[in-house]
Design goal:
It contains 13 helices and five strands. The chain is mostly helical.
Length: 326
């Protein structure tokens, strides 16, 4: 059984990314043959500074390793180093309906944000994602709730290709960890914590200093009243902070509610900030060590590239044969 997932090397990697994706990946390594990609070709659907993109790509690979992805049992690689991703995208484009891409919620949202740069790549993003997944004969795709629609179109395209040309692709299943699927912004409990948020008060970055974490948690919005109770409808901000507290500590929501019964928001926030700092400290320390040994990071990526390339080539040879390309 094989799993595939990836993150763009853009914006700030925050605790929402960690619990919504990377933490799942760490757990999946024990159950699946895992392929974890840095999807830098997806990143260029929005203009990027070339030097920053290169730096962020290596930085994200370093963070993958610092968080606990194990290159001894998982394949870690950079999307752009495997040319078959774009080759398969073109072929899948020929069986993708424009109306299907027009329904993509994320395209609609990004088109509003980037009105002056609604490019074909932004529109075609789900087909490239489908190629990413299908190239590696993927069984499961661990993603956040916002990417579920893209996995569904991947399944649609796999079935359609198989129907037209004969059995070729596996039909992947989506895997979403419900309790951490949507960690909301610290400044707005009605919107998901975002890598591209305009305000740094929206998220806790994995690289944030202890001082900055305290400041962000202290400034996090709260609800009326004083009770520390989990009620997403009446107290969405506190419910979000309780979710974060639970994920960081491993304690149940009920345990945390009991711990802070009769106590106020100030004490709760102080303890939450402390727990986040304690949780992130070993990740940050390991990342600093890896940054001093960049040669090792490049070795991991080179090994990952060669492993990924073998499977990607096999898949494309089969696809080309099926459709009659020489």
């Amino acid at each position: 059984m094989r799993a595939f997932s990836g993150i763009q090397p853009t914006g700030i990697i925050h605790i929402g990314n960690y619990f919504g994706a990377i933490k799942q990946w760490i757990d999946l390594q024990q159950k699946f043959e895992c392929f974890f990609c840095i999807v830098n070709q997806h990143a260029i659907t929005i203009p990027q500074n070339p030097k920053a993109l290169k730096k962020n790509t290596i930085d994200l690979a370093t963070l993958y390793l610092a968080c606990g992805l194990n290159p001894e049992i998982s394949t870690i690689f950079i999307q752009s180093e495997i040319k078959q991703h774009t080759e398969l995208t073109w072929i899948l484009n020929t069986i993708t309906k424009i109306s299907e891409l027009e329904r993509m919620t994320q395209f609609k949202e990004k088109a509003k944000q980037h009105r002056k740069n609604v490019n074909v790549g932004l529109f075609d993003y789900p087909v490239l994602m489908a190629a990413d997944i299908l190239l590696y004969k993927t069984d499961v795709v661990p993603v956040g709730e916002d990417q579920k629609q893209h996995v569904e179109i991947t399944r649609t395209l796999a079935r359609r290709f198989n129907k037209i040309y004969g059995q070729t692709f596996k039909i992947p299943e989506v895997l979403i960890k419900k309790e951490s699927a949507r960690i909301m912004g610290l400044d707005n409990p009605f919107k998901k914590m975002s890598k591209s948020a305009k305000s740094p008060l929206n998220y806790i970055a994995l690289d944030d200093s202890p001082e900055l974490i305290f400041e962000k948690i202290q400034k996090a919005v709260t609800d009326s009243g004083k009770e520390i109770v989990y009620n997403p409808q009446k107290k969405p901000a506190i419910a979000n902070l309780l979710t974060i507290f639970s994920l960081i500590t491993g304690k149940s929501i009920k345990e945390i509610e009991k711990e802070f019964q009769g106590k106020g928001y100030s004490e709760f926030k102080q303890k939450l900030a402390y727990e986040i700092i304690e949780f992130l400290s070993p990740i940050q320390a390991k990342k600093r060590d890896l940054q001093k040994n960049e040669k090792y990071v490049f070795q991991v990526l080179e090994i990952g590239k060669e492993k990924a390339k073998i499977i990607a080539k096999e898949t494309m040879n089969r696809v080309n044969e099926k459709i009659g390309l020489i």
